[in-house]
Structures are given as structure tokens and as C-alpha cells.
Specification:
Helix content: 25-40%
Number of domains: 2
Structural class: alpha/beta
Radius of gyration: 19 Å
Distance between the termini: 40 Å
CATH superfamily of the largest domain: NAD(P)-binding Rossmann-like Domain
Strand content: 15-25%
Largest sheet: 7 strands, parallel
Number of strands: 13
CATH topology of the largest domain: Rossmann fold
Number of helices: 10
Bound molecules: nicotinamide-adenine-dinucleotide
Length: 341
Amino acid sequence: MSLPSNKKRVAVTGAGGFIGHHLVSFLKAQGYWVRGIDIKHPEFSSTDADEFLVLDLRRWESCLEATRNVEEVYALAADMGGMGFISSHHAEILHNNLLISTHTLDAARQNGVQRYLYTSSACVYPEYRQTSTNVVALKEEDAYPAEPQDAYGWEKLITERLCTHYRAEYGIETRIVRFHNIFGPHGTWDGGREKAPAAMCRKVAFAKLTGNPEIEIWGDGEQTRSFCYIDDCLEGIHRLMRSDYSQPLNLGQDRLISINQLADLVSDAAGVSVQRRHVPGPEGVRGRNSDNTRLRAVLGWEPQISLEDGIRKTYDWIEAQVREQLDSAEPLRSRSAVGVA
Ligand code: NAD
């Protein structure tokens, strides 16, 4: 394929996934030439990428192909899911994500990529700082002394270090973003890898459409988190890539709510009342919030979209998926309860 010389050429790994799929469309709308790479095609709609390569990025040769002839790489590919998945697949997650992250970064360096954005996670923060529901919001420097959440969090922290050292020793301009619970339409909503907002929307939609008002929640539902809508996430990622800031940066909302409150918000969006049934299950840390002081200082911006608006858009899309599945009379693949990462 001949590549354009008049547009900045970028690659997005994980472009078949939730954030990567949206990021491809966002970058296309900004005028970039975009290559998407993933081990699978996007599940819910076709990609806007100029070129889409189906590759297994655990393999070094695939990473060389993925990062050839582009100036910038947004590295989103990861083996991941919600709390149920990341608390029970440690070996698989650590093995796969170490290979993906290490090979992609090194291949990008060898191909002369100028800028490289790595998508880390709030799971790098130590569990000992997240033991109460009324938790102090996490500042970037709170990641040390390290005690990340699960193997998933350890890989994120190690790759952050790898990016920092590659920048210092090899000159590739690395950027590191720590997401706090990104949600929106066109993300996994059933099957076991879905995260809390999508799982909650599915449960409530199912309750509404079947007339059975009961929804299951893992634990007492008092565990707290903040949730950030996808459009804010895309804006933040792009601003960070364009900035000269190379240290890790939080990207999330700083409005702390409990999982029970999330259930209420989703029920309001659905216009239905539900009965919560609390069941044992993986709950993750007791509380987690993003301190956005540095985000505001570095980007001159912070997430704008209210949780209510984001939930409404997400709920409407998931209700349509559930309706389609019920209409086709297929059993739901999974009816997991609601937890959080
Ligand atoms: P996602 O699971 O929807 O997307 C990840 C994509 O990576 C998937 O499409 C998957 O097929 C792809 N992938 C996995 N293994 C691969 C391989 N071997 N080769 C090529 N592609 C492979 O997840 P997402 O929510 O879009 O997350 C994107 C990134 O952001 C991930 O790195 C994730 O860890 C990080 N993150 C997300 C959140 C969130 O709330 N969604 C929070 C913190 C961090």
C-alpha cells in the first residue's frame, strides 16, 4: 500500500477493542492517516482506519510490521477485562501483556517512531492506599512504594518504567497515561470481560426488558470508583500525545461514586426500578479516585462530560444490544454480576 506524505501517519494497537476503535475514528477526524492493528476486527462496527492489520502483537515480527512507516504509535493492545477477568487470569495476563508491550515498544524504536503513547491504568496504584470507600484521590507519585493490583497492574507499572528508560536512553518520545475506568458505547458488555458500567447497563436492561427487577452486585456495592466517558478519554489521549509531558499522567473523572449509586444512575437512565441482590464476588480495591491536579496543570483541560450524560448514551446502546439478543432468542452468553477493576 502507498502511504500519503502529506498526512501524519499513526498506528493504533488494540484498534479492534473498545478505546482503540473509538481512537481510530477520532484520529481520522483530526486528519491523520491511521493504521489499526489488533488480533481481531472490531466487534460492533467496521473500522475507520486507512489500513487494518490483523496481527498477534505478542510476536516480535508482527510488532515490526505494525510500527513500520509511521511517525507515532498509540499502544492500546492488551489482554484485559473487568474485575472478574483480571483477578483470575494472572499468568495469562502477565505473560501476554509483557510480550505485547515489550515487543511493540522495541519494534517502534527500531522503526524510528518519534512518539509513543502507552496506556497504563489506575491498577498501578498500591492496594494499601485504597482500603476505604472514602478514599483519598490518587496522585501520580502515589504509585510508589509499589504494590499494584494483580498481575495486570504489575505489567502496567513495569512497562511505564520501560517507556521512561527507552526515552532517556534511546530518545523515543514516550507518553504514559493512567486511565481510570473508561466507559461508553461499543465496548464489551457481556461474556465475562466487561467492566462495571457495561455490566450494570446490561443487568438493568435485562431487568427492564424481561420484567424481572433483580440485579446481582458483587459485594455490598459500597466500593467506590470514578468513571470517565470515552469522548473525554480520546480528547485527553490526543492532548497528552501532543504535549511535551513524559511522566505518567492520570486520565479520569474525579467524581467518586459507589457501585450502588452507579446502579441508581443506570436505573434512572433506563426509567426502571431494580432490586439489588448482593452476592459474593471479586470487588477489587475498596475505593479509588483520580487526583486531577496534574492533569489540569499539564493539559490545561480536564474531562467535561457528566456521568449522567455518559451513562445515558452507554445505556441506550447496551439496551439495544440486549433487545437484539432477546429478540433472536439466544441465551445471554454470561450473566455475571457487577464488579469493578
Ligand atoms: P479492549 O480489551 O477493548 O481492547 C484491547 C484490545 O487489545 C482488544 O481488541 C484485543 O483483541 C487486543 N489484543 C489483545 N491481545 C492482543 C494481541 N496479542 N495482539 C494484538 N491485539 C491484541 O480494552 P480497552 O478498554 O479498549 O483498553 C485499551 C487499553 O487501555 C488497554 O491497554 C487497557 O489495559 C487500558 N486501560 C483501559 C481501561 C478501561 O477502563 N477501559 C482502564 C485502564 C487501562
